[in-house]
Amino acid sequence: MEDVAFWVLAVAAVASGVAVFVVDSMARATFALLASFLCVGAELLLIDLHYLGVLVILMMIMEMLVMAVFMVMYMMNPAGLMPMTMLHNTRGALAISGGAFVVLAAGIFTVPWPERAGRPPRDPTLALGESVMGPKMLVMMVIGIAILATMIATVVLATHRGRYDRDGAP
Amino acid sequence: MTLETFLLLAAALFCVGLFGALSQQSIVMLMMGLELMINGVVAAGAGFWFWVSPGTADGQVLVLVAITVMALEMAMGFAVVTALFRARDVDMTDDAGDLRG
Amino acid sequence: MVEVVVLGMLAVAAASLNGAFAGRPAEPFQEAARLLTLQRRRTARADVLLTRIGVVSLPLAAALAALVVPFGDRAAVGSGVGVVWFNAMEVVAWGAVWLAGWGVNSAFGLVGGYRFLAQGLAYELPHMFALITAALAAHSLDLRIIGEAQGGLWFAVWMPAAFAVYLVSALAMAFWGPFGHPVGGDAAGGVLAELSGPDRLVFLAGRYGLLTVAAAVAVPLFLGGGAGPWLPAWLWSPVKTCAVLALLVWTRRRFPVLRMDRAMTVAWTVLIPATVLQMLVVAIVVV
Where are the membrane-spanning stretches (chain C) (predicted)? Predict the structure, then answer.
């Protein structure tokens, strides 16, 4: 049962990932990417990562909706009503990514993976929480500072008004 | 459902994303390719956690970092596109080649 | 599953109550019958697939969120991360509303969709802080455990700021009452402008569903879950849900619609600091 769910979700994740670069409409491309993320989130739910799986679903929905706004804003042909191609070096890209996949797949099946060490804890969420608030505290602090730096940097880059010019009045 | 199949899924997602990142002209489409690649990293990190070392939370922390990186990458990417677009009406990678030698 | 069915019935009751406030309690049923028999209006070059996905995912998200809502100590799916699940399902509304507005290929629909996204960015952060505050006090993300943790004192009493912010964001996530700008009359109905026939019925049903689920989750989060005298726990939860839901429905005809850029200013300058301070107080008291 779990195997069937895994394969269905895996095929759906990769297929919608491919669809991102195939469909004409930017709205469809964004939501195809979202579908891919949702499938991976569901895969995480399958291997007991309930918190992280739901977190992926939650964050990716919000992120893709923000993405949709920018896609529609910047693309010449957001609704795909006039099909056009926006690719360069397609053959090279296909060769590189196809080659990378062959190498990765070969590696996956030839490398002798280590034996499983330990059992999954009864509550992985608790384990994660105690880890990031204990031995892995540094990771959490770096993430926090990175988020703050990104917030400041994005606002500086994206705004062209000062802080006293609230409503865009000249 | 084994470690190998899970990693195969991750590799497939990563390579589809790689294709997009290499072949797309528009910066926003290119970023969708990057997001797909990080999606593969999330799947791989979760797979390693479950089948290699479920005893410690390292794999979970890696997934958490990957999700954060994805959000930060998108925010920075759009800020750069906005600045670029505002400066010279450009949203294509081929037009932003200032550092070309 | 009985919990989900009961919440569905409460959603219908909420629609009827909304009609009753206008003096016509049977109006939603007449409207539903009318919409079911009405032919769909078609727009030129609409993206039918995306519209359908958006319209259907709104009630679907409400139903999925209802899965983790406990009545007493029993829920349809006893999830250890119920709070995060509810949050994720309620964010699906962003996608649903934007898709329904985008797909019909109409300017007013698109305006409504964008309004909801802006509103979503305004309400989501304070909303998440309010959810986390309750989870923090109970040491758990499980809605059942949070409900049971309030044996002595309801969270609504000693974290009033978080409770108030939660109620405000419940209105905002269902674009109801003062947050009805995405379907505002000034944009000819916004997202609803081009939805007709069964599509419109399903979309509106999903909106009542979201409002009901938001009211139902307020009970384990802030109102003591199934705690109460005389009645059994499984009955107290729906009774409290009815009270919260009636309050939410009542706001619709009592408050003017708030423009979403003003909502954004209020959210970032008032609601977020208030919830952060509330969380600090709770964290100091608990730890």
Answer: 49-71, 91-117, 153-176, 208-227, 233-251, 263-286
What digits encode the pLDDT tens for the residues C91-118? Answer: 999 999 999 988 888 889 888 899 899 8
Token readout for A4 is 């069937």
Helices then strands, counting H and E runs in chain A, come out as 6, 0
The residue range of the domain holding B69 is 3-92
Is B24 part of any domain? Answer: yes
Kindly give, in sequence order, each residue whose CB lies less than 8 Å from that of residue C232, ignoring residues fewer than 6 positions away: C72, C226
Distances (CA, A) of A87 to A22, A154, C12, C81: 11, 27, 50, 42
This prediction's pTM: 0.89
Residue B27: inside a domain: yes
Question: Could you read off the pLDDT of A117-163 as tens digits, one per residue?
Answer: 888 888 888 888 888 888 888 988 999 999 999 988 888 888 776 66
CATH number at residue B46: 1.10.287.3510
- ipTM of the complex as predicted: 0.87
Q: Which of A79, A95, A113 is the last residue of a domain?
A: A79
Look at residues C79, C74, C85 and name the one whose alpha carbon lies nearest to residue C233.
C74
Domain boundaries, chain C: 2-286
Residue with tokens 């939805």: C195
Q: Is residue A158 part of a domain?
A: yes
Q: Which of A25, A50, A57 has the CB atom closest to C80's CB atom?
A: A50
For residues C279 and C129, the answer to whether their CB atoms sit within 8 Å is yes
| Host domain of residue A15 | 1-79
The span from the CA of C152 to the CA of B66, in Å, is 41
Give the B window 20-79 contacts with A, CB below 8 Å.
20, 22-29, 31-33, 35-36, 39, 42-43, 46-47, 49-58, 60-61, 63-65, 67-68, 70-72, 74-76, 78-79
Number of domains chain B contains: 1
What is the number of domains present in chain A?
2
